[in-house]
Amino acid sequence: MFSVLIPSWNNLAYLKVCIESIEKNSSFTHQILVHLNEGTDGSVAYLKKKGIEYTISETNIGICKALNLISKKASTSYISYFNDDMYALPGWDFHLYKEIEALGHENFFVSGTMIEPKAGKNLNMIQGKDFGDLNNFKEKELIAFHQQLVFKDWYGASWPPNVVHKNLWEKVGGYSDEYSPGMYSDPDFSMKLWQEGVRVFKGIGASRVYHFMSKSTGKILKNDGRKTFIEKWKITPGFFYKNMIKMGKTYNGELKSNFNKLAYFLMKIKIIFLQYKK
């Protein structure tokens, strides 16, 4: 049904849990594709044994280049991006595909909803729900919690797990290499879709994953993606999320192209101030 792209960097224990949760908890059969950065931890042998297609680089080329490389092997109409430190909960794919069918066109970006252990204020996530890490993973308790929980659909699809039509992925050129190793590549990809006329950025409340959080990104030297985004698009990523795709607000139909003029003016003043501080 989907081509699920998973970039991984010597993170075999979590990669196993991610892949096996997709296999175990999906409503449909999916093409799982992995890019291994280095792959010196036994990941190659594991994927070969599972019969899972992969690409590999000798060094860590980051998320953007990894996704673009492995996406060339996608054989379905829909590309889904997963982090390797995510656990797919039952029905994650059913609810996403149900939404795609209801839309009836290719011009969309839909996302599942993350459950995370740390408390926070992101309205598009279920935060502060700690079900452990791999040493004490409370899988049964997590699934029971997921099955009882009701969560709204929300605006602002951007972060994984997400799904986009393959035609749209190819039209915008996947994720932008200039954000390597990957910080702020998510809002950039969403902005590229916006520029192509996409106005359905919908998070599906019933589609969920548990996110163990930063088991790979915590190891890297991060790029200044915010600066790259501002220089490229002449707006801040915060303005894009809040005022254009309305991240976290309750979903109520396709987005409009207009946005708050005062907020736009203040954002432009902020950019000038940031440039002056240099």
Describe the structure.
This protein is α/β, with parallel strands linked by helices. It has one domain (3-277): Spore Coat Polysaccharide Biosynthesis Protein SpsA, Chain A. It is 38% helix and 19% strand. It contains ten helices and ten strands. It has helices at residues 12-25, 43-50, 62-71, 92-103, 139-148, 166-172, 185-195, 225-233, 237-244, 261-277, and strands at residues 3-9, 31-37, 53-57, 78-81, 86-88, 109-116, 125-127, 154-155, 162-165, 201-211. Helix 2 links the parallel strand 2 and strand 3. The longest helix is centred in the C-terminal third of the chain and has 17 residues, at 261-277. The N and C termini lie far apart (48 Å).
Keyword list:
278 residues, Spore Coat Polysaccharide Biosynthesis Protein SpsA, Chain A, globular, alpha/beta
Outline the low-pLDDT stretches: none
Number of strands: 10
Distance from N terminus to C terminus (CA atoms, Å) equals 48 Å
What's the architecture, going by CATH? Alpha-Beta Complex
Level-1 CATH class name: Alpha Beta
Mean pLDDT: 94
Shape: globular
Helix content: 25-40%
Order of helices and strands: EHEHEHEEHEEHEEHHEHHH
Quickly describe the structure.
With 278 residues, the chain is α/β, with parallel strands linked by helices.
Strands, helices and their partners?
Layout: E1 3-9, H1 12-25, E2 31-37, H2 43-50, E3 53-57, H3 62-71, E4 78-81, E5 86-88, H4 92-103, E6 109-116, E7 125-127, H5 139-148, E8 154-155, E9 162-165, H6 166-172, H7 185-195, E10 201-211, H8 225-233, H9 237-244, H10 261-277
Parallel strand pairs: 1-2, 1-4, 2-3, 6-7, 6-10
Antiparallel strand pairs: 4-9, 5-10, 6-9, 8-10
